[in-house]
Amino acid sequence: MKYTTLPNTEIKVSKICLGTMTWGNQNTQDEGFSQMDFALDKGVNFFDTAELYPVPARKETYAETERIIGNWFAKTGNRDKIILGSKIAGTGDYTAHIRTNGFSKDALNDAVNDSLKRLKTDYIDLYQLHWPERDTNTFGKRDYNYNSNDKWEDNFNEILHNLDDIIKSGKIRQVGISNEKAWGTMRYLEESRQHNLPKMITIQNAYSLLCRPFEGDLAEVAHRENIGLLAYSPMAFGVLSGKYIKGTAAKDARLNVYSHFSRYNSANASEATKRYLKIAEDNNMSLAQMSLAFVNERPFITSNIIGATNLQQLEENIDSINISLSNEIMEAINAVHAEIPNPAT
Protein backbone atom coordinates (compact mmCIF):
# COMPACT_ATOMS: atom_id res chain seq x y z
CA MET A 1 0.00 0.00 0.00
CA LYS A 2 1.06 3.58 -0.57
CA TYR A 3 0.32 6.32 1.93
CA THR A 4 -0.03 10.07 2.02
CA THR A 5 -1.18 12.54 4.65
CA LEU A 6 -4.38 14.50 4.94
CA PRO A 7 -3.39 18.02 3.82
CA ASN A 8 -2.16 20.38 6.54
CA THR A 9 -1.98 17.52 9.05
CA GLU A 10 0.27 14.66 10.09
CA ILE A 11 -2.54 12.11 9.72
CA LYS A 12 -1.26 9.29 7.50
CA VAL A 13 -3.86 7.71 5.22
CA SER A 14 -3.71 4.98 2.60
CA LYS A 15 -3.88 6.18 -1.00
CA ILE A 16 -6.76 3.74 -1.36
CA CYS A 17 -9.78 4.51 0.83
CA LEU A 18 -12.49 1.94 1.53
CA GLY A 19 -15.91 3.22 0.50
CA THR A 20 -18.89 1.78 2.36
CA MET A 21 -22.12 2.99 0.77
CA THR A 22 -23.38 -0.50 -0.22
CA TRP A 23 -23.31 -1.94 3.31
CA GLY A 24 -26.81 -2.33 4.67
CA ASN A 25 -28.39 -2.52 1.23
CA GLN A 26 -26.44 -4.40 -1.44
CA ASN A 27 -24.17 -5.91 1.22
CA THR A 28 -24.99 -7.53 4.54
CA GLN A 29 -23.23 -6.75 7.81
CA ASP A 30 -21.15 -9.93 7.52
CA GLU A 31 -20.03 -8.92 4.04
CA GLY A 32 -19.14 -5.46 5.32
CA PHE A 33 -17.11 -7.05 8.11
CA SER A 34 -15.26 -9.22 5.57
CA GLN A 35 -14.46 -6.19 3.42
CA MET A 36 -13.09 -4.24 6.37
CA ASP A 37 -11.00 -7.22 7.51
CA PHE A 38 -9.62 -7.73 4.02
CA ALA A 39 -8.90 -4.05 3.37
CA LEU A 40 -7.11 -3.59 6.68
CA ASP A 41 -5.00 -6.69 6.00
CA LYS A 42 -4.03 -5.12 2.64
CA GLY A 43 -2.85 -1.94 4.35
CA VAL A 44 -5.96 0.21 3.84
CA ASN A 45 -6.31 2.35 6.97
CA PHE A 46 -8.79 4.95 5.67
CA PHE A 47 -12.56 4.24 5.68
CA ASP A 48 -15.20 6.68 4.40
CA THR A 49 -18.87 6.60 5.31
CA ALA A 50 -21.83 8.94 5.85
CA GLU A 51 -25.01 9.11 7.87
CA LEU A 52 -26.84 9.06 4.52
CA TYR A 53 -25.58 5.57 3.65
CA PRO A 54 -26.48 3.05 2.37
CA VAL A 55 -27.37 4.36 -1.07
CA PRO A 56 -30.03 4.91 -2.25
CA ALA A 57 -31.04 6.91 0.80
CA ARG A 58 -34.21 5.53 2.37
CA LYS A 59 -35.83 6.01 5.75
CA GLU A 60 -35.92 2.24 6.28
CA THR A 61 -32.13 1.84 5.99
CA TYR A 62 -31.02 5.25 7.28
CA ALA A 63 -27.50 5.18 8.81
CA GLU A 64 -27.25 1.37 8.66
CA THR A 65 -23.75 1.64 7.18
CA GLU A 66 -22.46 3.55 10.21
CA ARG A 67 -24.03 0.94 12.50
CA ILE A 68 -22.21 -1.84 10.65
CA ILE A 69 -18.88 -0.05 11.01
CA GLY A 70 -19.56 0.58 14.69
CA ASN A 71 -20.37 -3.09 15.23
CA TRP A 72 -17.09 -4.03 13.52
CA PHE A 73 -15.15 -1.66 15.78
CA ALA A 74 -16.85 -3.22 18.82
CA LYS A 75 -16.12 -6.76 17.63
CA THR A 76 -12.51 -6.26 16.52
CA GLY A 77 -11.20 -3.42 18.67
CA ASN A 78 -9.66 -1.92 15.53
CA ARG A 79 -10.81 1.67 15.94
CA ASP A 80 -7.27 2.89 16.64
CA LYS A 81 -6.04 1.35 13.36
CA ILE A 82 -8.48 3.29 11.18
CA ILE A 83 -8.69 6.89 9.98
CA LEU A 84 -12.43 7.37 9.79
CA GLY A 85 -14.36 9.85 7.68
CA SER A 86 -18.10 10.49 7.85
CA LYS A 87 -20.51 13.17 6.67
CA ILE A 88 -23.59 15.17 7.65
CA ALA A 89 -26.31 14.65 5.07
CA GLY A 90 -27.18 18.21 4.11
CA THR A 91 -30.49 19.27 2.61
CA GLY A 92 -32.69 17.91 -0.17
CA ASP A 93 -35.73 15.79 -0.86
CA TYR A 94 -33.67 12.64 -0.36
CA THR A 95 -32.70 13.71 3.19
CA ALA A 96 -36.09 14.90 4.43
CA HIS A 97 -36.32 11.76 6.57
CA ILE A 98 -33.11 12.77 8.37
CA ARG A 99 -33.54 16.47 9.22
CA THR A 100 -34.58 19.72 7.59
CA ASN A 101 -32.34 22.28 9.32
CA GLY A 102 -29.33 21.97 7.03
CA PHE A 103 -25.95 22.76 8.57
CA SER A 104 -27.27 24.78 11.50
CA LYS A 105 -25.60 24.51 14.89
CA ASP A 106 -28.27 22.13 16.15
CA ALA A 107 -28.07 20.02 13.00
CA LEU A 108 -24.28 19.69 13.17
CA ASN A 109 -24.31 18.77 16.83
CA ASP A 110 -27.13 16.27 16.41
CA ALA A 111 -25.51 14.70 13.37
CA VAL A 112 -22.10 14.32 14.99
CA ASN A 113 -23.48 12.95 18.24
CA ASP A 114 -25.73 10.45 16.48
CA SER A 115 -22.90 9.28 14.21
CA LEU A 116 -20.60 8.78 17.18
CA LYS A 117 -23.21 6.57 18.86
CA ARG A 118 -23.74 4.45 15.76
CA LEU A 119 -20.02 4.21 15.05
CA LYS A 120 -19.30 3.27 18.67
CA THR A 121 -16.43 5.73 18.90
CA ASP A 122 -15.80 9.00 20.67
CA TYR A 123 -14.22 10.82 17.71
CA ILE A 124 -14.34 11.06 13.90
CA ASP A 125 -11.07 11.87 12.15
CA LEU A 126 -12.55 13.70 9.14
CA TYR A 127 -16.05 15.16 9.23
CA GLN A 128 -17.45 16.34 5.91
CA LEU A 129 -20.42 18.35 4.65
CA HIS A 130 -22.06 15.99 2.16
CA TRP A 131 -23.70 18.60 -0.11
CA PRO A 132 -23.77 22.37 -0.47
CA GLU A 133 -26.90 23.87 1.04
CA ARG A 134 -27.27 26.36 -1.80
CA ASP A 135 -28.72 25.51 -5.19
CA THR A 136 -25.85 24.68 -7.55
CA ASN A 137 -25.03 22.28 -10.36
CA THR A 138 -24.50 18.76 -9.06
CA PHE A 139 -24.98 15.18 -10.24
CA GLY A 140 -25.19 15.37 -13.99
CA LYS A 141 -25.70 19.13 -14.26
CA ARG A 142 -22.76 20.47 -16.25
CA ASP A 143 -23.65 24.14 -16.15
CA TYR A 144 -24.61 26.48 -13.35
CA ASN A 145 -27.99 28.12 -13.78
CA TYR A 146 -29.07 30.75 -11.30
CA ASN A 147 -32.26 29.85 -9.46
CA SER A 148 -34.12 32.98 -8.38
CA ASN A 149 -36.12 30.89 -5.91
CA ASP A 150 -33.04 29.76 -3.99
CA LYS A 151 -33.61 31.02 -0.41
CA TRP A 152 -30.08 30.18 0.78
CA GLU A 153 -28.15 32.89 2.62
CA ASP A 154 -24.38 32.96 3.04
CA ASN A 155 -23.52 31.03 6.23
CA PHE A 156 -19.96 29.83 5.61
CA ASN A 157 -18.62 31.70 8.63
CA GLU A 158 -21.35 30.38 10.92
CA ILE A 159 -20.75 26.77 9.80
CA LEU A 160 -17.02 27.03 10.42
CA HIS A 161 -17.57 28.57 13.87
CA ASN A 162 -19.88 25.71 14.80
CA LEU A 163 -17.45 23.10 13.45
CA ASP A 164 -14.68 24.81 15.43
CA ASP A 165 -16.66 24.28 18.63
CA ILE A 166 -17.10 20.59 17.82
CA ILE A 167 -13.38 20.21 17.07
CA LYS A 168 -12.55 21.82 20.40
CA SER A 169 -14.88 19.35 22.10
CA GLY A 170 -12.72 16.51 20.73
CA LYS A 171 -15.55 14.87 18.79
CA ILE A 172 -14.00 15.52 15.36
CA ARG A 173 -10.40 16.16 14.36
CA GLN A 174 -10.54 17.70 10.88
CA VAL A 175 -13.20 18.94 8.45
CA GLY A 176 -13.84 18.65 4.73
CA ILE A 177 -16.44 19.25 2.04
CA SER A 178 -18.09 17.05 -0.56
CA ASN A 179 -19.79 17.67 -3.90
CA GLU A 180 -18.62 21.27 -3.70
CA LYS A 181 -17.74 23.72 -6.45
CA ALA A 182 -14.84 26.15 -6.82
CA TRP A 183 -16.76 29.13 -5.48
CA GLY A 184 -17.98 27.35 -2.36
CA THR A 185 -14.55 25.88 -1.72
CA MET A 186 -12.88 29.28 -1.90
CA ARG A 187 -15.52 30.85 0.35
CA TYR A 188 -14.77 28.30 3.07
CA LEU A 189 -11.04 28.87 2.65
CA GLU A 190 -11.50 32.64 2.74
CA GLU A 191 -13.47 32.53 5.98
CA SER A 192 -10.95 30.16 7.49
CA ARG A 193 -8.01 32.39 6.61
CA GLN A 194 -9.59 35.69 7.63
CA HIS A 195 -11.12 34.55 10.91
CA ASN A 196 -8.70 31.87 12.13
CA LEU A 197 -11.31 29.14 11.72
CA PRO A 198 -10.82 25.46 10.83
CA LYS A 199 -9.66 24.84 7.28
CA MET A 200 -11.48 22.46 4.96
CA ILE A 201 -8.61 20.09 4.19
CA THR A 202 -10.31 17.76 1.70
CA ILE A 203 -12.97 17.84 -0.96
CA GLN A 204 -14.80 14.63 -1.87
CA ASN A 205 -16.06 14.82 -5.44
CA ALA A 206 -16.73 12.42 -8.28
CA TYR A 207 -13.67 11.78 -10.44
CA SER A 208 -12.99 9.09 -13.02
CA LEU A 209 -12.03 8.55 -16.64
CA LEU A 210 -15.63 9.41 -17.52
CA CYS A 211 -15.91 12.39 -15.17
CA ARG A 212 -12.94 14.79 -15.10
CA PRO A 213 -14.38 18.30 -14.54
CA PHE A 214 -12.35 18.55 -11.31
CA GLU A 215 -9.36 19.17 -13.56
CA GLY A 216 -10.70 22.64 -14.30
CA ASP A 217 -10.87 25.31 -11.61
CA LEU A 218 -10.92 22.90 -8.68
CA ALA A 219 -7.58 21.31 -9.60
CA GLU A 220 -5.93 24.72 -9.37
CA VAL A 221 -7.70 25.41 -6.07
CA ALA A 222 -6.47 22.06 -4.75
CA HIS A 223 -2.90 22.81 -5.80
CA ARG A 224 -2.65 26.42 -4.63
CA GLU A 225 -4.71 26.05 -1.46
CA ASN A 226 -3.43 22.59 -0.41
CA ILE A 227 -6.80 20.89 -0.27
CA GLY A 228 -6.85 17.23 -1.30
CA LEU A 229 -9.35 15.43 -3.50
CA LEU A 230 -10.98 12.31 -2.11
CA ALA A 231 -12.18 10.84 -5.40
CA TYR A 232 -15.46 8.96 -5.29
CA SER A 233 -17.02 6.84 -8.05
CA PRO A 234 -13.59 6.25 -9.66
CA MET A 235 -15.19 3.26 -11.40
CA ALA A 236 -18.16 5.32 -12.62
CA PHE A 237 -20.66 3.11 -10.78
CA GLY A 238 -19.00 -0.02 -12.12
CA VAL A 239 -19.13 1.03 -15.79
CA LEU A 240 -15.33 1.16 -15.90
CA SER A 241 -15.11 -2.51 -15.03
CA GLY A 242 -16.27 -3.12 -18.61
CA LYS A 243 -19.01 -5.49 -17.45
CA TYR A 244 -21.85 -3.51 -19.01
CA ILE A 245 -20.02 -3.26 -22.34
CA LYS A 246 -19.27 -6.98 -22.26
CA GLY A 247 -22.77 -7.89 -21.10
CA THR A 248 -21.51 -9.69 -18.00
CA ALA A 249 -23.09 -7.43 -15.37
CA ALA A 250 -25.19 -9.23 -12.79
CA LYS A 251 -28.89 -8.43 -12.42
CA ASP A 252 -28.16 -6.72 -9.09
CA ALA A 253 -25.26 -4.63 -10.46
CA ARG A 254 -25.60 -0.96 -9.51
CA LEU A 255 -26.74 0.47 -12.83
CA ASN A 256 -29.24 -2.34 -13.22
CA VAL A 257 -30.69 -1.49 -9.82
CA TYR A 258 -30.31 2.31 -9.71
CA SER A 259 -31.61 3.66 -13.01
CA HIS A 260 -31.37 7.29 -11.80
CA PHE A 261 -27.60 7.15 -12.36
CA SER A 262 -28.21 7.02 -16.11
CA ARG A 263 -25.46 9.55 -16.85
CA TYR A 264 -22.99 6.67 -16.48
CA ASN A 265 -24.57 4.64 -19.29
CA SER A 266 -25.27 7.34 -21.85
CA ALA A 267 -24.29 6.70 -25.47
CA ASN A 268 -21.17 8.86 -25.11
CA ALA A 269 -20.18 7.19 -21.83
CA SER A 270 -20.55 3.76 -23.44
CA GLU A 271 -18.48 4.77 -26.46
CA ALA A 272 -15.73 6.24 -24.29
CA THR A 273 -15.73 3.11 -22.13
CA LYS A 274 -15.28 0.91 -25.21
CA ARG A 275 -12.22 2.93 -26.20
CA TYR A 276 -10.76 2.83 -22.70
CA LEU A 277 -11.35 -0.93 -22.60
CA LYS A 278 -9.33 -1.36 -25.78
CA ILE A 279 -6.44 0.67 -24.32
CA ALA A 280 -6.45 -1.53 -21.22
CA GLU A 281 -6.61 -4.79 -23.17
CA ASP A 282 -3.87 -3.65 -25.56
CA ASN A 283 -1.66 -3.13 -22.51
CA ASN A 284 -2.53 -6.42 -20.75
CA MET A 285 -4.46 -4.98 -17.83
CA SER A 286 -8.08 -4.92 -16.78
CA LEU A 287 -10.09 -1.79 -17.44
CA ALA A 288 -10.83 -1.58 -13.71
CA GLN A 289 -7.18 -1.48 -12.75
CA MET A 290 -6.27 1.00 -15.49
CA SER A 291 -9.17 3.24 -14.44
CA LEU A 292 -8.17 3.18 -10.77
CA ALA A 293 -4.45 3.57 -11.51
CA PHE A 294 -5.33 6.68 -13.52
CA VAL A 295 -7.03 8.19 -10.48
CA ASN A 296 -4.34 7.04 -8.04
CA GLU A 297 -1.64 8.90 -9.97
CA ARG A 298 -3.31 12.31 -10.28
CA PRO A 299 -1.27 14.96 -8.41
CA PHE A 300 -4.31 16.45 -6.66
CA ILE A 301 -5.50 13.11 -5.22
CA THR A 302 -5.20 12.52 -1.49
CA SER A 303 -7.05 9.19 -1.57
CA ASN A 304 -9.09 7.15 -4.05
CA ILE A 305 -12.37 5.90 -2.57
CA ILE A 306 -13.07 2.44 -3.94
CA GLY A 307 -16.25 0.45 -3.38
CA ALA A 308 -17.00 -3.19 -4.04
CA THR A 309 -19.83 -5.62 -3.47
CA ASN A 310 -17.59 -8.70 -3.17
CA LEU A 311 -14.05 -9.56 -2.11
CA GLN A 312 -12.89 -10.42 -5.63
CA GLN A 313 -13.74 -6.90 -6.80
CA LEU A 314 -12.19 -5.43 -3.68
CA GLU A 315 -8.90 -7.27 -4.18
CA GLU A 316 -8.65 -6.15 -7.82
CA ASN A 317 -9.41 -2.58 -6.85
CA ILE A 318 -6.88 -2.43 -4.02
CA ASP A 319 -4.19 -4.02 -6.20
CA SER A 320 -4.48 -1.07 -8.60
CA ILE A 321 -2.10 0.75 -6.25
CA ASN A 322 0.71 -1.37 -7.70
CA ILE A 323 0.09 -0.29 -11.31
CA SER A 324 1.82 2.63 -13.02
CA LEU A 325 0.60 3.99 -16.33
CA SER A 326 3.18 4.74 -19.01
CA ASN A 327 3.31 8.00 -20.91
CA GLU A 328 2.00 6.15 -23.97
CA ILE A 329 -1.05 4.89 -22.07
CA MET A 330 -1.72 8.36 -20.69
CA GLU A 331 -1.50 9.83 -24.19
CA ALA A 332 -4.03 7.26 -25.43
CA ILE A 333 -6.36 8.01 -22.49
CA ASN A 334 -6.16 11.74 -23.07
CA ALA A 335 -6.85 11.28 -26.78
CA VAL A 336 -10.15 9.61 -25.91
CA HIS A 337 -10.90 12.35 -23.39
CA ALA A 338 -10.25 15.02 -26.03
CA GLU A 339 -12.81 13.44 -28.35
CA ILE A 340 -15.41 12.49 -25.71
CA PRO A 341 -14.83 14.77 -22.72
CA ASN A 342 -16.63 14.08 -19.45
CA PRO A 343 -19.53 11.99 -20.81
CA ALA A 344 -20.75 11.13 -17.30
CA THR A 345 -20.68 14.61 -15.80
Short description:
The protein contains 12 helices and 10 strands. With 345 residues, the chain is an alpha/beta fold. The mean pLDDT is 94.
Topology (SSEs and partners):
Layout: E1 3-5, E2 12-14, E3 16-19, H1 29-41, E4 46-48, H2 64-76, E5 83-88, H3 105-119, E6 124-129, H4 156-168, E7 172-178, H5 182-195, E8 200-206, H6 217-225, E9 228-232, H7 243-246, H8 254-257, H9 267-282, H10 287-296, E10 301-306, H11 311-319, H12 327-339
Parallel strand pairs: 3-4, 3-10, 4-5, 5-6, 6-7, 7-8, 8-9, 9-10
Antiparallel strand pairs: 1-2
Helix pairs in contact: 1-2, 1-11, 2-3, 3-4, 5-6, 9-12
Structure notes:
The protein has helices spanning 29-41, 64-76, 105-119, 156-168, 182-195, 217-225, 243-246, 254-257, 267-282, 287-296, 311-319, 327-339; strands at residues 3-5, 12-14, 16-19, 46-48, 83-88, 124-129, 172-178, 200-206, 228-232, 301-306. Helix 4 links the parallel strand 6 and strand 7 (172-178). The model has no long low-confidence stretch (mean pLDDT 94). Helices cover 39% and strands 14% of the residues. It is built from twelve helices and ten strands. An eight-stranded parallel barrel has the order 3-4-5-6-7-8-9-10, surrounded by five helices. The protein has a two-stranded antiparallel sheet with strand order 1-2. By secondary structure, it is of the alpha/beta class.
